[in-house]
Amino acid sequence: MKQHLKIGLVISFFLAVVSAFGQLTISGNVKNITNNPIPSASITLSKLNSKIILAFAFSNKEGNYTIQYNNAGSKDTFELNAFAMNYSIFHKVVFPGSQLVDIRLSPQITRLPNVTVKNTRPVVKLQGDTLNYDVIAFRNPQDRSIGDIIRRLPGVELDNTGKITYQGKAISNLYIDGDNLLDDKYNIATRSIPGDMVDKVQILENHQPIRVLKNLAITDIPAINLVLKPDARIKLIGEGNVAIGDRGTYEAMANALLLKKQVKFINYFKLNNNGSDLAGDIVSQFQPKFGAVLNMELLNINSIGNPNLEKRRYLQNTTGLVTLNNLFKLENEVQLKINGYYLYDKQYQYYEGTNTYYLPLDTIQYAESQYTNRNKNIFRTQFNIDINKNNYYLDNKTLIDNISKTGQAELNANKNITQQISGSVTTIQNELNYKKVLKNKQVLEGYSYIGNIQNLQTLDIFPGLYPSLLNENIAYKQISQNLYSPTFYINTYLKYYTRKKNIVQSYEAGFATQAQQLNSSIKRVQLNDSVRLAPDSFRNLLSGVHTKMYIESNFDWIVNHWQIGSTLIGSFESFQYENNLHFQDKKLYRFLPITPALRIKFQIGQKSFITGNYEHTQTFGGIRDVYEGYILNNYRSFFNNYGPVFRTHTDRSTITYNYRNTGKLFFVNAGATYNKADNNSISTDILSNEVQLSTRKVSDQNKSSAFIIFLGANKYFSNWHTTISLKSSWQRGEINLMQNGSLLHFISDNSTSNFSIRSRIISWLNTEYNCSYIYYVSKHLNIQGRPFTDAPSSYHIQQKLNITINPSTNYFMNLSAEQYINQSTGMPANHILFADFSFVLKIPGIHSDFEFFINNITGNNIYPIINVSENNISKTIYTIRPRSALLKYSFHF
Amino acid sequence: MLKQTLLLFTLCLNFVYGQKNDTVKLIVNYSYRFMPDTSSRDVFVTENTLLFVGNTSSLYTGYETYLYDSALQAKIEARKNGILHSSINPGINLKNPLASKVIKQNNENKFYTVERFYKDFLAEEVIDKINWTIYGDTKKIDDFLCQRATCRFRGRTYEAWFSPQLPFADGPWKLGQLPGLILDAHDNKGEVYFGFNGFLKVSDKTPLIHLPDNTINVSQSEFKNLKQAFLEDPVSFFENTPGLVSGTLSGGVMHGSAVGQIRPKRKLNNNRLELKD
Q: In this predicted model, what pLDDT tens digit does every residue of A765-801 receive, in sequence order?
């Protein structure tokens, strides 16, 4: 027995020692149940219940394997695992030592662990000058149109008016699959093309749409191209909605879209009375070279602007819009385009307020309350034929546009006054542009523009005001201000483009003329209804011709990282006019301005560049700067503008820095601008408690300048689906004003900051926070009598939080809160909070959505604001849209 | 002689080894970073790459190449079905014109390398056994527990992180042969890096793994010479390679030196992914 024990002890000791330093070797084969070898099976060894693999082997073609582990502890227990795809998993507990383990595996479908699929496709990709944003990565379930998505792209901004900027630069155009359907009215696209039709949003960084000018004209203005999904290119898409709400509010819309390669159209109508502004759909987002309707409004009935609120909160309206935009490709590179719209817009507004001017010797105050309703009808059609070939370019546009307006204001300013306005502006324009490639690849361009504007306006005021000034101190019934101002324009030029290696040059010679009349008179309707003209100092009978002949040269030199350009324009301008009322002779002015400009761009690596720009311009006034007779602008302002022909020298210098890292989705733009303007005369305001007279005098004191620093930064965190953006600017402006005979010099500082964060960390929760801060301070030393001793200042803070919860793609709700804080020197701050709620239910089976909205939950009915500028404080209380509920049904096919 | 060479190439064309199609089980996205020239150690080229893992084989390719090929394929299909009448331009610009691919057939124990020198050239090589040393260190990559391993492979010392939870003896490029998928690998000099980006969804539309059609099959050494010649002077390469264009059959099989006589060589970067040990 003892002997046995001893032997046993010795053996176990021996075994322990051997295994402590020894090996674990397992060999065998891996076969299936029909005894066929399984090659490439993995055999692993780990400690029992541990996930750490200590050794591994693969079976060979014959199914044989050998696995070896040299650091096996004697008391360790191991686990042998074998795995082959689509076979059962094999486990066996093994102990140190050498052994033979044959493995049999039975067929079994292998279940792989769940992998979380992330969108690893780069969401933004740069290809040459084109930046591609993957729409799907930025899409949220509640998005309706592509504009909702563009707004969220890092580096891109879409403001409240629909204007799109990329890296702080306004885009020059928005193309749909490469086609320019809408020109400057691209809101029609951003507000009507459904987001799910678009595959990619492309930023074309240096876009040259005209083929013959490729390599012959340097451009650094970005454009956007919407690349459609293939299935969106084939079918007609229709959508529509109807909505009704409390207090008789309604909304309706029907839209038909076809975006084929050969034919594109967006035709829709919309109408509502719930505060959504349809004029915003057809707003011009950039000054088109052609088709700008000059603002000829000299008369108006509103003496106050709009509140700093979102428009839908205060706009009381009844409006309808029909727009037709059709593009046909007749053959390759030849397209015909017809755009037209009709807008009916009726707006109501009620406000009351005071306006105080602090002058060195005086304090002037106006107090008024006013109820206005205004009607506007706009009709516009544009025909365009465009041939954009490699050897020539031809483009002709014809435009007819009519705006007619009527309006009435009932106001109380010490007494009850009624103002009625009506007017009509009709514009007919044609533009023809032809470019031809010559031998040696130079290009010759011919351009011609003809335009005619008819402008007729009247302002009637009841009762007859200012009898001492206008009616020999006799009370009378009505003032009637008439204004008629037709204008005729011609502009033609020839331009030659050439390129020698790295130098791009162009030369232009042109002629432009503008013939204009300004006829105005004030009629006084007496109590007995007899009508008499006011004295000549309230009448104008002017006609004038402004002509310009010029030569322009452009050089752009591109070398390595540098791009240096200059423009020099030498012109001969003349302005001749006659005033048949106030003097007999014609007056003639001549100018020989030379206006230079310089541009420098330096590329630092692939990601960033610096630009510097300087330009000097001289502008000359036209007929609207030489009218001697007063025009009644509104019930309390008489303006005349008489003196020497208005002349301004402007110097503008800008430096910008631009950085974009598309891999890290980080965008920065920063810069500084200094503008200086020097005029030959100054507008002189005479303010009294009753009336404001404005005229102009020769003076070398009309100087103004502004220095601006700005910064914008944008970063997208793909893992968090979050964009953070920051925008900030600081401006110091200096200006001289002449009021009541005193020359006042003002320095004002304006700083604005905007911070926003948009996030979708959890797939069913979208949050968006936005905060903007505006601070204004104005310094002027010699003004007495203000209710405060410090420089007048004000700040406005607006913050908005928007939360969307979408537990399923078929329904979601949205809650938003918006706070406005306004404060001005010497006044308590006022806070106002708005909240909105909406719930959307989508029923895909019948292509329908039901939506329920409650707007202005907190039930604010008025909005007070105090604005401070230079030496003026205005306090205004606006009536805004009350709490309202709306139920909407939408469908699409 | 010329005709014979041409014939030889034509014979090789499409005369592909017993093709097997393998369904994709998993698609892994890696970012690949490489230092092209060791004299400027802060300059890297990066590429977004994909590994399609099947039961017995895998395909490693550039993301853009994959998109390009699928777009091209779709257009070819569309044309076949009479839907498309325009050109078959896939509308994608390739950043890496070589469009490199590595196909592993683990059961056959073979790698196939495909690169595009105007046409797809294919070279076959035997998978060399990698002697991995595994360690007890672990880290998590995207919820997967990974274990560290090191090896010497094709002139470089690699450190790799593999996950036994993903039971594929595969990895980016030619790496693999571990009892779990390699999610992260880099060399010890900081010149080569394969980093895990994420997984992509496998769908019915995911193409099967197979050797590409219409390739020109060459030996491993020829392949290296061709690549050198292509990189040094793509124009001469195009003009002088039979089988690319008919009509310009001015030379036989190319060598870098022969090309060099025609026009000055482009200076090439000094670093290679595969080095000699």
A: 999 999 999 999 887 655 554 544 567 788 899 999 9
Q: What is the dihedral of CA A785, A790, A793, A795, to 10 degrees?
A: -130
Q: Is the pLDDT of residue A840 over 90?
A: yes
- Which class for A50: exposed (0-12), middle (13-18), buried (19 or more C-beta within 10 A)? exposed
Judged on CB neighbours under 10 Å (0-12, 13-18, 19+), A123 is buried
B 56-75: CB under 8 A from A = 56, 63
Residue A308 CA to residue A312 CA, distance in Å, equals 12
Please answer whether residues A787 and A757 qualify as being in contact, where contact means their C-beta atoms are separated by less than 8 angstroms.
Answer: no
Q: Is the peptide bond before B90 cis (omega within 30 degrees of 0)?
A: no
Q: What is the DSSP letter of A347?
A: E
Cross-chain Cβ contact A42/B48 below 8 Å: no
Question: How distant is the Cα of A115 from the closest Cα of chain B, in angstroms?
Answer: 7
- On whether any CB of chain A is under 8 Å from the CB of B131, the answer is no
Tokens standing for A126?
A: 């740069």
Q: Which of residues 38-57 of A touch B (CB under 8 A)?
A: 39-40, 42, 44, 51-56
Q: Do A40 and B138 touch (CB under 8 A)?
A: no
Over 90: is that where the pLDDT of A866 sits? no
- Of the residues B43, B201, B203, B209, the best mutation for testing chain A's interface (the one with the most A CB atoms within 10 Å of its CB) is B201
Query: Rounded to an integer, what distance in angstroms lies between the CA atom of residue A222 and that of residue A130?
Result: 10
List B residues 152-171 in contact with A (Cβ-Cβ < 8 A): 164-167, 169
Region at A502 (left for phi over 0; alpha for psi -120 to 50; beta for the rest): alpha
Contact A53 B138 (CB under 8 A): no
- The β-bridge partners of A597 are A567, A615
pTM across the whole model: 0.70
Q: Which residues of A touch B166 (CB under 8 A)?
A: 112-113
Of B107, B136, B201, the CB nearest to A117: B201
Residue B89, pLDDT > 60, answer no
Phi and psi (nearest 5°) for A730? -135, 135
B10 in A contact zone (CB under 8 Å):
no
- Mutation choice for A interface testing from B165, B170, B203, B206 by most A CBs within 10 A: B165
Burial of A588 (0-12, 13-18, 19+ CB in 10 A): exposed
Q: Would an 8 Å CB–CB cutoff place B25 in contact with chain A?
A: yes
ipTM over 0.85: no
Contacts with A498 (C-beta within 8 Å, 6 or more apart), sequence order: A216, A440, A442, A443, A504, A505, A506
The confidence score (pLDDT) of residue A290 equals 55
How far off is chain B from A455, nearest CA to CA, in Å?
Answer: 51
Nearest to B207 by CA among B81, B17, B22: B22
In whole angstroms, what is the distance from residue A756 CA to residue A393 CA? 44
Surface-to-core class of residue A281, CB atoms within 10 Å of its CB (0-12 exposed, 13-18 middle, 19+ buried): buried
Interface test with A, best of B57, B161, B166, B200 (most A CBs within 10 A): B200
Written as one string, the DSSP assignment of chain B is -HHHHHHHHHHHTT--SS---B-EEEEEEEEEEE-S-TTSTT--EEEEEEEEEESSEEEEEEHHHHHHHHHHHHHHHHHHTT---S----S---SSTT--EEEEETTTTEEEEEEEESEEEEEEEEPPPP--EEEEEEEEETTEEEEEEEEEETTEEEEEEEETTS--S--STT---SSSEEEEEEETTSSEEEEEEEEE---TTSPPB-PPSSPEEE-HHHHHHHHHHHHH-HHHHHHH-TTTSSS----SS--HHHHHTTSPPPPPPS--SS---
Tens digits of residue pLDDT in A678-714: 988 888 888 887 778 888 888 888 889 999 999 999 9
